[in-house]
Each structure stands twice: as structure tokens, then as C-alpha cells.
Amino acid sequence: MTMSNLIRTGVLLAALTALFMGVGWLIGGGGGMLIALILAAATNLFAYWNADRMVLAAYGARPIARAEAPRLHDIVAGLARRAAIPMPRLFLIDSAQPNAFATGRDPAHAAVAVTRGLLQALDEAEIAAVIGHELSHVVHRDTLTMTITAAIAGAVGMLANFAFFLGPSEDERDAPLGMAGALLVAMLAPVAALLVQMAISRTREYEADRRGAEISGDPRALAAALDKIERLARGTAVADAERHPATAHLFIVNPLHGASLVRLFATHPATAERVRRLEAMAAARGLGGRAGPSGPWGVRRIA
Question: Which residues neighbour 287 within 8 Å (Cβ) at sequence distance 6 or greater?
């Protein structure tokens, strides 16, 4: 991890911890803030070792054996060699929405999860480009920060719910704003957590697109994949994503359904702008149309 990434990661985690402590202070004053600090430290420690398994379990992801999808394994292995990282574990999410995410605390413990819809809707070149994007997150250690952010943001939301249902402490002197503070926490804490998620995801998606296109060797394939995923995701709900909106920023495209109010707090840059940048990248490199059978992956389907 570069020094800039390390500093940015530290700032983001510090911001989430401060948010957590602020929620505790509004609920229970100094005692609540201390409890929140302890809970935040425990959440950070637990998330470092277990957040990837928690996220995969939340989406019912199952390992993909090589015998089940040998071509997919070959593509991922080739891309991992290009990225100079170990082969990540592969998981399948049984969802019709085309999407994917990477998780894991470091490249040696990385995992890439793809949906059934992704394998069915995208061609081989597009799938390779999406995997390249996810491996870029692994290379830059974004997966650790993004997964821990999801865990803490989810915890902030849970704490806000407790504040709403339980109200302030019995000793009103310990709760700075009394019941009004509990209501304020319940309304604003999840929004604040979403804003932090927006900061982490928006600033890193462009870089993951750029580096991912370099890994796959086909910027236009990634542009086509993003456009296709965005269009199909609008009309395909993912129940697990709706239940766990704090994980939305992990995916290559926001998985929340178009009708969801949470989608107003977009965790990703506009897909049109991402596509524009990738097309410009391809033009600058003198690349023509999409890679065909003579390109790095071909355009056949693998599922």
C-alpha cells in the first residue's frame, strides 16, 4: 500500500470511528462515547479479520470450483499474473443482476464475487474487464478499506436504530440532547455513514477503472460492461443489497434498485462519466473497436 493510500485509509477509518463516538455521545454523553469507542475498536479489529467472510455470507456467495467454470478460472488466473498478485478465490452470487465485487484484507487473502447475471449477460471480454477492475481494488488494498467501511457503517446504522428504539439514558444529564438527540442520531447517523462511503468509493472507482483497463488490456470492453451493468441493474433488484445497503459501495456498479431512496446517496461516480473516460483512454492508445477473437480474450460467452 502506498503512503498516500495508507494516509487516506487512516483518515477514513478515523472519520468513521469519530462518527461512531459522536453517536455514542449524543445517546449517552461521556459514558456513551467511551462505550462507542470500545465498540468501534472491537468492530475495526473484528472487521479486519472477518469482514470479507461476513460480506460474502450476507450475499450467500458460494465458492466456484475450477471444474464448474474452467474458462473463468483461466481468465482470472491470467489477469492475476498481469496484476502480479496471487490468484484470488472465486465466488458466485445467485442473483440475476449483473454485478461483481472484490473483498479481502490483502492480495494474499482476496476474493472476487460475481453474480450469475454477470456471467450470463456479459461476453468474455467484458467479464475479463470487470475482473480486471476488481483486481485493481485488490492491488491498491482498497478491498480492506471498503470492507471495513461497510462493517463500521453498518454498525453505525445499528447504533442509530438502538438510539431510536431505546431512547437516551435514564440519567438525562448523560444525554446532551435528551430524546431529541436520540431522534437526531437515528435520522442523521446513517446519512453521515453513507456520505463517508461516497467519499471512499467515488474517489477510487476512477482509478480502479483506469488500472483495471490496463490489467485486462481492453478499456472499451470495460466501458461496454459498465454501460450494460448499469442498464440492467436499474430493473433488477437484489434483495440482499436492499437489506445491507452499507455494502453497496463494494460493487462495481451500485446494486441498489432504482426505486430505492438509498440510491439517492450514490456511492459511485456517474457511469456515463466512467464510460467517457475509458473511451478517451482507448482513443489515446489508438485502440479501435472492441477486442474480437484476436484480442486478449475474444468475445465469446463463458456461461
Answer: 218, 219, 220
Q: Which of 233, 249, 268, 242 minimizes the C-alpha distance to 59?
A: 242
Point out the residues that are catalytic: 134
pLDDT in tens, 247-275: 888 899 989 865 544 444 566 888 999 99
Q: Which helix (H) or strand (E) holds 210?
A: helix 178-216
pTM for the structure as a whole: 0.78
**242 three-class SS:** helix
227 vs 218: CA distance, rounded Å: 15
What does the alpha-carbon distance between residue 93 and residue 102 come to, in Å, rounded to a whole number? 12
d(Cα 212, Cα 219) in Å, to the nearest integer? 8
How far is 131 from 212, CA to CA, in rounded Å?
8
Between the alpha carbon of residue 144 and those of residues 3, 87, 102, 176, 275, the distances in Å are 15, 17, 10, 35, 26
